[in-house]
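[recover] target loaded
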């Protein structure tokens, strides 16, 4: 009887501890989250303090998992602007319950852009990226592991994925970069 009671207590304590931490702590402590995405979060931690508070506000964050190809994760560092320009596209203000997702649903992300949800009998996707149906509970919302990066509208991945050409080599005063159409 003591063993059953200890097992029940430990499993209950373990669950409540997971839901007591805020989203940012849960992500940074999780072994299931892509290391490059963690680095992006850490480098912008001062801008993400709202994810580190259990003040009653709720969020849903879609976080790239470990199975994201390194090449995809490294694309974050090759995009123009600050990484903080892209991180809010992974966050929705409010809780999203996996079982309540509907096909064709559009959700507004923290950056103001829309993400598209596709639901089939086999899985759910956000912008054609698989969503793991196992949520990670936090005191201020839910975290879902996704299979790849998601991109806000206006990001031209073909343009960004092409290799750049730098010239002349060696550089004296001016470095030219080809295949960039915007500053």
């Amino acid at each position: 009887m003591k063993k059953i009671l200890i097992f029940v207590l430990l499993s209950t304590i373990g669950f409540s501890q997971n839901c007591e931490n805020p989203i940012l702590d849960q992500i940074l402590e999780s072994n299931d989250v892509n290391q490059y995405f963690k680095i992006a979060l850490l480098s912008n931690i001062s801008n993400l303090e709202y994810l580190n508070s259990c003040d009653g506000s709720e969020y849903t964050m879609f976080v790239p998992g470990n199975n994201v190809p390194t090449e995809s994760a490294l694309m974050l560092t090759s995009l123009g602007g600050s990484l903080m320009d892209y991180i809010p596209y992974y966050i929705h203000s409010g809780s999203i319950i996996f079982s309540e997702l509907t096909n064709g649903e559009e959700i507004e992300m923290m950056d103001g852009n829309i993400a598209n949800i596709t639901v089939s009998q086999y899985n759910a996707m956000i912008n054609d990226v698989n969503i793991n149906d196992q949520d990670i509970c936090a005191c201020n919302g839910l975290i879902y592991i996704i299979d790849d990066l998601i991109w806000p509208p206006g990001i031209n991945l073909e343009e960004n994925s092409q290799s750049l050409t730098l010239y002349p080599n060696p550089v004296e005063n001016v470095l030219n970069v080809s295949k960039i159409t915007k500053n």
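[recover] notes: The first strand starts at residue 59 and ends at 64.
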